[in-house]
Amino acid sequence: MNELQGAGVALVTPFNADGSIDFESLGRLIDFQIDEGMNYLVSLGTTGETATLTAEERKQVWAYTSERVNGRVPLVAGLGGNNTSEIVKQVASFDFSGYCALLSVSPYYNKPTQEGIYQHYKAIAEVAKLPVILYNVPGRTGSNMSPATTIRLAQDFKHIVATKEASGSFAQFSEIMRDKPADFLLISGDDPVTLPMMALGAVGIISVIGNAFPKEVATLASLCAAGNYAEAREIHNSLLKLTELCFVESNPCGVKYIMKQLGIIATDQVRLPLVPVSASLQATIDQELAK
């Protein structure tokens, strides 16, 4: 899966002021990412506010994104949830035209056992027509996919090809790197730890802040891949505070505000239960952007 090397971005879903999907801004965002050197795009990962889109809206976004990208860069579809049978149906019937892989988040809220997580992904792998990327983000799902479960899935299913790891545990990252099959990929799911994860052997990042700064994120990943950590640290340090601010009042509220301020999207509209960032956080972000 050379397509998953380097920097990918979990695209936001831009909205108009009335809450409808702003396809014009989405098109500009896609072109901006490609023009600035992003290696691949993820359509409707959790940063895309997938949970508050209707089934029809999700189909429209996937189709529009595939058409707009038009093969210029690899494209990954985000498709996950906590109702295994429903996700299996969606995966089995999904039109993967233009897509190279599927990113599926570990089941949230249910708090399954490790065996439950394994069986969930097994059911997806048995019907998926494309390679599958696991996504472990315990801070949002309420449960951690252990390294042992990740390795078991990687060994049992050849087309489970990678994991997007956002556990924040370097012990966990190291265990995956030590025990994984040679061709199984570890991908950072958390911008601030991309540099040290790539030093351990991760192949890149699926980024949030890359929505606003694709050139910088792509360059950071490229420098790390080349072993040039001194220059990579400069970019890492320059993005660190803004990345932190993106998550103060939940993702993607912060990064959408940054993108609006930079003229990348028209509004920072999000869908309830999310709300735009507060005036005080806007002021803090504006001060950081001015630097």
TrEMBL record:
Site (Part of a proton relay during catalysis): 46, 109
Positions of pyruvate binding: 47, 206
Top-level EC class as recorded in UniProt: lyase
Similarity comment: family membership: Belongs to the DapA family.
Subcellular location: Cytoplasm
Domain of life of the organism encoding this protein: Bacteria
Quaternary structure note: Homotetramer; dimer of dimers.
Residues at the active site: 135 (proton donor/acceptor), 164 (schiff-base intermediate with substrate)
EC number(s) given by UniProt: 4.3.3.7
Pathway participation: Amino-acid biosynthesis; L-lysine biosynthesis via DAP pathway; (S)-tetrahydrodipicolinate from L-aspartate: step 3/4
Full protein name: 4-hydroxy-tetrahydrodipicolinate synthase
Catalysed reaction equations from the record: L-aspartate 4-semialdehyde + pyruvate = (2S,4S)-4-hydroxy-2,3,4,5-tetrahydrodipicolinate + H2O + H(+)
Keyword terms: Amino-acid biosynthesis, Cytoplasm, Diaminopimelate biosynthesis, Lyase, Lysine biosynthesis, Schiff base
InterPro entries assigned: Aldolase_TIM (IPR013785), DapA (IPR005263), DapA-like (IPR002220)
Record GO terms (molecular function): 4-hydroxy-tetrahydrodipicolinate synthase activity
Its biological purpose: Catalyzes the condensation of (S)-aspartate-beta-semialdehyde [(S)-ASA] and pyruvate to 4-hydroxy-tetrahydrodipicolinate (HTPA).
